[in-house]
Write a structure and sequence with these properties.
single chain, about 250 residues, alpha+beta, Beta-Lactamase, Arc Repressor Mutant, subunit A, five-stranded antiparallel sheet, about 50% helix, about 15% strand, globular
Length: about 250
């Protein structure tokens, strides 16, 4: 998507306009469509070029949806590296606003992710936690092509989108003991992806005699070194196409 400058975008949203756009964006959507619809709404509503949403999962975010290929790629980069605003926001349970990935504190805090993001044309990332004061279920991640802060009205609108996303996710029917309900096929697929990562981590733990944290770190490092996502590398480990040994 071509970057938008401040002259091209709509004025900063007020609460009523933001709520109207969100309501229109999800009208008639089924549960599996809502995350993608809300990512699209966020791009229309805010001074950003992309959006993605991920669920938390034991230190490994699982991408739920994205507004486009670049947002999807950067979401996977954070999951693979184990660093970035997404993981930090999920850990702290508060918005994390990386306003300039080209220099300064944000570039130093997440140096590898900052390098990958800027190479993809993204200069700022804003991560909004999904959940409440006691639990974080995921993050809404917003990508921008130029450095800069979100205005207070834009931040409020982003939190409105995140709030609706949270309600939609928490309102889904819970899976039964032996599987997911019929309408949850889209969510069960994400769970299967997460299980593959855990299975691979377990295999690496046995191979290396290492703990879970070290095994996950080695999986991520191997994936990044070989230009794979963490999920792709996990599948190679499970299928015995790749073995991760100690250096």
């Amino acid at each position: 998507m071509r970057p938008r400058d401040d002259r091209e975008r709509e004025p900063e949203p007020d609460g009523a306009r933001a709520a109207h756009m969100i309501a229109e964006g999800v009208r008639g959507a089924g549960p599996g469509e809502i995350p993608g619809r809300l990512c699209t709404v966020a791009v229309r509503l805010l001074p950003i070029s992309g959006a993605s949403v991920s669920l938390c999962g034991d230190g490994m975010p699982v991408q739920l949806s994205a507004s486009g290929d670049r947002a999807a790629e950067l979401s996977e980069v954070q999951a693979t590296l184990g660093e970035g605003p997404c993981l930090y926001a999920a850990q702290l349970g508060v918005p994390v606003l990386a306003t300039d990935l080209t220099a300064g504190q944000d570039a130093l805090r997440w140096p590898v992710f900052a390098q990958e993001a800027t190479a993809a044309g993204v200069r700022a990332v804003y991560s909004i936690p999904l959940g409440n004061d006691t639990v974080c279920v995921g993050t809404l991640d917003l990508y921008r092509d130029v450095p800069g802060e979100l205005g207070l009205k834009d931040l409020h609108a982003a939190q409105l989108v995140a709030g609706v996303m949270t309600v939609a996710l928490m309102a889904l029917p819970h899976g039964e003991e032996n599987g997911f309900l019929e309408g949850e096929a889209w969510l069960s697929g994400l769970t299967a992806d997460h299980d593959e990562v855990h299975q691979a981590v377990g295999m690496i733990m046995v191979q290396l005699g290492a703990g879970a944290d070290e095994a996950l770190a080695r999986l991520r490092a191997h994936a990044f070194a070989h230009d794979r996502t963490a999920l792709e590398m996990a599948r190679e480990v499970i299928e015995h196409r790749t073995r991760i040994d100690r250096d």
